[in-house]
Automatic annotation (TrEMBL):
This is 2Fe-2S iron-sulfur cluster binding domain-containing protein. Pfam families: Fer2, Fer2_2. It comes from Allomesorhizobium camelthorni. PANTHER family: OXIDOREDUCTASE, IRON-SULPHUR BINDING SUBUNIT-RELATED-RELATED (PTHR45331). Residues 50-126 form the 2Fe-2S ferredoxin-type domain. InterPro entries: 2Fe-2S-bd, 2Fe-2S-bd_dom_sf, 2Fe-2S_ferredoxin-like_sf, 2Fe-2S_ferredoxin-type, 2Fe2S_fd_BS, Aldehyde_Oxdr_Iron-Sulfur, Beta-grasp_dom_sf, TAT_signal.
């Protein structure tokens, strides 16, 4: 015969085990009931392309682009002009520099759709057939490149920079001077937006100074 204490202990254990099991079942049921019903996502509507006429290297080019396409991607991926390089894609290295209406810009920071009607010049358009642009020839003469990846942007930037030589820069000692000498310090400051990871900067400066002195 069981003692009363044994009956009490057995009853207490049974109650505790039963309560625990009930709690687990209730929790599982609540989780199943509260689980959200998955919603099937619909495919986003395609963005219609834009028909553009771009004047590149003195040639009219027709192209259809996603309106979000950058000028750099349009040149490289849609117009077979891979000379402009994609480096950082954030406007910090200058490898994508091209000329728009004679002014240098970072092609990765502007949309192609913004430049319909503009005169766009890339590295491919600087030479006249087999005759190199003076800046291209100077870069070769002064060994202004090593791996060459940044060179197209360096050259386009240098060509545009020479057109800005009359403007003062951060390196200009006297901003009120009528004539600003294009010293090495001025060239380095004005070309500071173009990075050469091979560090050919002295040769790049020499090439630009050579062209500036011949002009």
């Amino acid at each position: 015969m069981r003692k009363p204490s044994d009956c009490a202990l057995l009853t207490r254990r049974t109650v505790l085990e039963g309560s625990a099991a009930t709690g687990l079942l209730m929790a599982a049921g609540l989780q199943a009931a509260s689980a959200p019903t998955p919603i099937k996502a619909s495919a986003p509507a395609p963005i219609p392309k834009m028909a553009l006429w771009l004047t590149i290297n003195a040639e009219e080019r027709a192209v259809e682009l996603d309106p979000r396409t950058t000028l750099l991607d349009a040149l490289r991926n849609h117009l077979a002009l891979p000379g402009s390089k994609k480096g950082c894609d954030h406007g910090q290295c200058g490898a994508c520099t091209v000329l728009v209406n004679g002014r240098r810009i970072n092609a990765c920071l502007t949309l192609a759709a913004m430049h319909e009607g503009d005169e766009i010049t890339t590295i491919e358009g600087l030479a006249d057939g087999d005759d190199l642009h003076p800046m291209q020839a100077a870069f070769i003469e002064h060994d202004g490149f090593q791996c060459g990846y940044c060179t197209p942007g360096q050259i386009c930037s240098a060509v545009g920079m020479l057109g800005e030589a009359g403007w003062p820069s951060h390196a200009t000692a006297d901003v009120s001077a009528g004539t600003i000498a294009l010293t090495d310090a001025e060239i380095r400051e004005r070309m500071s937006g173009n990075i050469c990871r091979c560090a050919a900067y002295p040769n790049i400066v020499a090439a630009i100074r050579d062209v500036a002195e011949r002009a």
